Structure formats: structure tokens, C-alpha cells
Amino acid sequence: MYQHQGEDVFVIDGHIHMWDASEENIKHRGGEQFIQCFYDYHTAFTPEERQRGMDDYRKFTPEDVKRDLFTNYVDMGVYQPTHLHEFYTEGFNTVDDLGETLYQEYPDRFVLNGRWDPRDGEAGLKELERQKEEYDIKGAKVYTAEWKGDSKGWRLDSDEAFEFLQKCADLGVKNIHPHKGPTIRPLNKDAFDVADVDLAASSFPELNFIVEHVGLPRLDDFCWIATQEPNVYGGIAVAAPMALSRPKKFSEIMCELLYWLGEDQLTFGSDYGIWDPDWVIEAVMETELSADQHAEYGVEFGLEAKKKLMGENIAELYDIDIEERKKAFRTDAISEEFGLGDSYDTAAPADD
Amino acid sequence: MSHTATPNRPGSAGLHERIRARLDRVTDPELDESILELGYVDAIEINERTATLRFTLPTAWCSPAFAWMMAVDARDELESLPEIDQATIELRDHMHEQEINEGVNDRLPFADAFPDADGEVRSVRATLDDKARLSRQYVAVERLLAAGLSAEQITALTPADLRFDRDVDPRMEGARAAIAVGDGAFSVSVPARPLHRYLRKARDVGYAIEDDDPLFLTPEGEPIATEEFELVHRRGRLARTNVTGQGGVCEALNEQRREKLDRDGPVILEAN
Question: Which of A92, A202, A224, A237 has the greatest number of beta carbons closer than 10 A?
Fold first, then answer.
């Protein structure tokens, strides 16, 4: 468990992957471009001594994921699937990739999210039911810019998407994570536009919408929507690594998020394997707002806010009892394997 | 920024200056900063009355629509100079460099160069211009607040209240502008560049055209009531943080990429 100024910080990494972009799995040139683009992001932000080689980066095995997360300050990981079947024969990072492997062995260490796409129609609704039945998913990642046939994306506020959102509400899949990140793809249609979150969130107040990557580069649109919808949250994956190499820009973004959304509406994500979690967690935890920023924004980013960001907020969304997990993790298989048990011991609060 | 001076060609240094001034107006539409400032330009080659501009973006997969806008704008700005009859644009190391270079140099519409693309460039540009307008408004209004103007005075301003010094290029460091306050009873001197940058973008979007239009507007394009000034200004700050924050992402990608490609820039070269 991560320690900050002598205090324990329980880290739930809200955005992790386990992908396969090996050459054998790529079936469309978009698949190669996609992983190359990820790699550009990897090398642009990762400290030189921590950079991976491209071969190492193409594919992550369950063993890699287990070691890379749990020996690098992460206590639990929220898996966010990205199927991309148009690009990859077996998919890039599918629900079952984790569901059939690590999730079977270590269900307490992961939140396994489902995934749906309204363009899949009836079959997609059936698949969502299967995911619920098989893994009891409580959340789903949606990727509005995914290609399918001639379509280069879809909107969350479409009739078709509403049918799936209704299904999620019926099934108790209450956390929807729309990916809204930098414009890479598609051509000129802005499928990562955040405006569609607005109507979806107000139409489904029983669901939570955790906008991944806080809409960058549409932070302004995102914050404005989030102030008006109480069930909209911001996931800071992609903004987070800037904490190391662009600390001023990161703290400005944090100020805006704290100002418009508040410290209860934010979740952390390393975006593993784009980046490894340890240095991202350290850099975010070490972030201090300047006196000018305090004066200008009137917000705090102290230990309490950081603990919420790093785990407490997302624990609430997924009904995770952190104290209970800490107790369980003192002796679970992961702690045994990596010798982590003691770190959970010190965290035990006095019961009497 | 390196610069190959050519002292034995009278007048050419002036041309270089003007090329820079022109390209200063060509922005990455998402970041609202000039392609020169952002370090995208690799070289500008001048050969008699033609110019070739080579540039590289932070990734090979940057939005082709944005790349298109930068290429078209650079071509048009260069050709607006009396010394340049024709400008050729060469986008390098981009997955759509061929479509973009051929399209822009053959003066095709975007839809012809990218028949698969749905939507068109104009509406994307309009959306981004409007965000840039708000972000620039924040910077300009900060200057006015720093100069002592009140919310009431700022929201009452019209383009007629803003005077740039005629003899100095308002984009230059140190250039000043005068703001008439209280029905012209007195005037306040402020740096010209942020006001000039704001007004140009506002006018691109279609605001602050007439002398009695409001100078500053809400994100939705309405006049600002004094009591909503604070909120509008904070939304402007947010728009500003968005572009500079995304700028941080692109800057990191760009630095790393230029290192990988071993590419410095920009240099203005004279072929003869």
C-alpha cells in the first residue's frame, strides 16, 4: 500500500488494461497505428529509465499485469475493456481477456468492467446480459470512437445507446465509463465530443457517468456539463502523467476539476499499460498547489482530497469497503506472492 | 529559434520578419497557438517568388482535419505576401500526408481530398475558433482587471472604446492599446497584443464587428450582465486551461518526436 507522509493511501487504479497488439493479432493497419500511437504517449511521458521497448509493449500477459500493478503501489485495479475487433483478430483488450484469467484467481483485487456498443443491436444486449451473468459486472466501459463497418463512431445520446443504458440500469450495471480523450481518430468527425454525456446523464439519474480522460481536450465542455449533472464524474487518466513532466499544467487541470466538480467526483487512473502506475501515483501524490493557485481557485488538494482521488471515490461507486479489503489483503495470495502483507497490517485501524 | 541571416541581400531580412509575422497567425486550431511557437515548422525555403513550408506534427495520427487547416492557413498567409506568388506545403511523417499535401497544393476542398470523411472542416473550425475566442477573452480581460477596470466597466466596453497605436504593430512586445472608460472620460493603457489577439478571433467568429457591439461576450455569444461577469470569466479561465493543458500533452509528444526524427526547426532558407 502506498504511504504518504506516514499515512496509508489505498490505491484503486481506476483505469487499467491488458492488451494484445502483437503482430499476429493485428488484422487492419489501424491496429498497428493504434499501438504505435499508444507507444508515442508512453515514451513522451515515461521517465527514460522506465521506458519499455516496443516488443515488450505490444502484449501484456496476466503475469505482467499482476506484477506491474501490485508491486507498484496499486491495491486494486479497475479493468476497462477496449475491444477494437475491427483492428485486432481476437480483440485488443476484451472483457474475457481478464475475466477468464486474473479475475478468476484474484476477484477481490479487480473490478472487471463490461463493455457494450449500441451498433451491436440485439446481439449486443444479449452479450451484456452474458457479461452480467458470468462476471456480475457493475460497470461498463464505452468507446464512442470505435470503428464498426462503415461507422467511425456513435453517440451516447442516441436512441440505440439509450436502449443499452436502460439495460444497464435494469441489470444494475450502474457505472458507465465513456472514453473521452485526445483526438487521434477518426478523421474529422469528433467522436470524442463530450456533449452526448449531458443528455445521457440527465436521462439516467440512477447511473453514474465517469468520463475517462476528463474529456481532454474538451475539459471545458466536460466541466461545464459535470457541474450541472450530479452523476457525472471525471477520471484523470492521461492528465495524470503530466504531474511528472508538466507539473504546472497538471495542477492547473486539478484546480479546474476541484473547482467545478469538487473532490468527491474525481477518480484516478494510471491508464496501465500506457504507463506504469508507480511513478504516476508518486507524481500525483507529490503535487502541491501553489499559493497563487490557492488564492485564485480557492480549492485544496491536500491528503484528504488525494485519498479520495486515489481510491475512496471509486470505492464508493463500486461498493468497495476499503477497510475490509485491507484486512483481507493482509493474507491474500497476492500479498503472499509479493510479500505485501505487512503493508496492510500497519493500516489496520484500532477496533477497540 | 535559429535564423539564417542573409545580410548581402537587401530587404530579405524584412521579408523573413514578415514571414514570421504571417505564420504567427497560423495556429494549431486545438491549441490556439502559432505553429511557429509550437515548434511544428521544420523549414521555410524561399526560391525566387515561391516558398515551400515543411512541417511535422506531434504525432503521425494527429487529426487530419486539424492538419488540413494548418496547411491551408500557412499556404494562404505566405501567399498574402507581395513577394510570394506561390506557396507549397509539405506536411511530413503523417499517416495522411499524401492526401493533405496533394489536396492543399492542388487547392482541393477537404471533402475531395478525404472522400471517406463524414462532416466537414468548416464546422470543426468554427467550434474551435469559438473556444479560442473565449480563451483569448480570458487573457485580455485579465489584463484589463490588472489595469484596474471593474466588471461593470469591462462588460460595458465596445470595439469603439479600444484604440491601438497606429504606428506600432500591436502584435509586437511592448505595444500598447488605450481603453476608453466612462464614456470616454478617461483612458487606460494596456498591453496591445492580448487585446489584438482577442479581437481578431472574436471577429473571425462574427462578434464585436460594429462600433457599438459588446466587446466581450458569454460563451454562448450573449452580452455579459455585470452580475454574471465572474462566472463568465471563470469559464474563460477553464477554456484557457483546456487549451494549455492539451498543449502540455502535445508539447511532450512533439519534443519526443522531434528528438526521434532528429529534426530541429525552424529555419528560413534562401535557395539561391
Answer: A237
